[in-house]
Specification:
Elements lengths: L8 E6 L8 E5 L4 E8 L2 E6 L10 H9 L4 E9 L9 H6 L7 E10 L2 E2 L5 H11 L7 E3 L3 E2 L3 H10 L4 E6 L7 E10 L4 H13 L8
Parallel strand pairs: 1-11, 6-8
Antiparallel strand pairs: 2-9, 2-10, 3-4, 3-5, 5-6, 6-7, 10-11
Length: 211
């Protein structure tokens, strides 16, 4: 089963972090993008390409059912945390720890039947904080910072070995597809960069040049 009703907003890849007051900045977790859909007692998890992964991550499903609001759609990242508290992509990818995978929510697209996507991000963040005010193991509110701190935050993220930052305009609505209002800047030394290069090499192998 595939879901396209809540197709995700995707960041534009850049090399510098915005440093003006109208942006917020989130640490990029090294995981899988997911949306969490709950309608009453039914919970479904969809990937960014619309594939149903509900059966893959039981901890996230159980956490969604413990949220007091019975109808919502959350946007975020499925993450496996290692013993050091950082995301472990290799462990996530090999699927040996699916029952430990958690969800970091960074946006809410629908709540109690109301479509929130037309609201500015600042208002959606407020709604998300209210929705997740009661801490529930398995779904967490993703932290963020505001304004000019972006470049400094990125430098610290790189020092800590994190994947990078996603910066978002706090006054813009949620739009499906690649958006200039979401900017991703990657840590050039993070293993995720090597994965991207490997994927590129597989898709476009080097031509053999005869001597």
């Amino acid at each position: 089963m595939r879901s396209i009703e809540f197709a995700p907003c995707l960041p534009t890849l850049k090399t510098s972090v915005p440093a003006t007051p109208d942006w917020i900045h989130e640490v990029k977790h090294d995981g899988y993008r997911l949306t969490v859909h709950r309608e009453g007692k039914r919970v479904r998890l969809f990937t960014r390409n619309g594939h149903n992964w509900t059966d893959r991550y039981p901890l996230i499903v159980e956490a969604a059912l413990r949220i007091r609001v019975s109808s919502f759609v959350l946007d975020g990242e499925a993450v496996l945390l290692g013993v050091d508290g950082r995301s472990d992509f290799d462990g996530l990818h090999n699927r040996k720890h699916n029952d430990e995978v958690q969800f970091y929510a960074f946006d809410v697209l629908m709540s109690e039947g109301g479509d929130l996507r037309k609201l500015p991000l600042s208002m959606r963040k407020t709604s998300l904080a209210r929705l997740l005010a009661r801490r529930i193991n398995g779904i967490f509110l993703s932290d963020f910072e505001r304004g000019e701190i972006g470049p400094d935050l990125f430098r610290h993220a790189c020092i800590m070995g994190l994947e990078g930052l996603v910066s978002k305009r706090n006054d813009r609505p949620y739009r499906a597809g690649v958006s200039p209002n979401w900017v991703k800047v990657k840590n050039p030394d993070h293993p995720a960069m090597a994965r991207v290069q490997d994927a590129s090499d597989e898709a476009y192998p080097a031509r053999q040049v005869s001597g």
